[in-house]
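WARN retry 2 of 3 for item q-0093 after timeout on previous attempt; input resubmitted unchanged.
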Amino acid sequence: MIRVGLADLRPSSPTFKASQVLEIGDDNQMGIFIPTGVAHGFYALTDVTLTYLVDNYYNGADEMGVAWNDPELAVAWGVTDPILSGRDQNNPLLAQIDPAKMPK
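OK item q-0093 returned
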């Protein structure tokens, strides 16, 4: 089972800064469409295999992250001390991201 955290980072969106958490597992199998500009992360509660379907080739230069526990986004992960990758440990708060780098 995984928790999927979503946060709208599109300043022009009526749901800008809104967040939502979904749980996906054996009892709740689903696919999720995540629009460009919506940040997303995953918290594994059990061993899982996750498959991404994307609309373009991966470009690391086009990737950015935001702190998993940013109080401005208030993603309700339900955890206080997750194991994070090195990259995710260094993600900035939303307020620290250059507005010119925000999604359109």
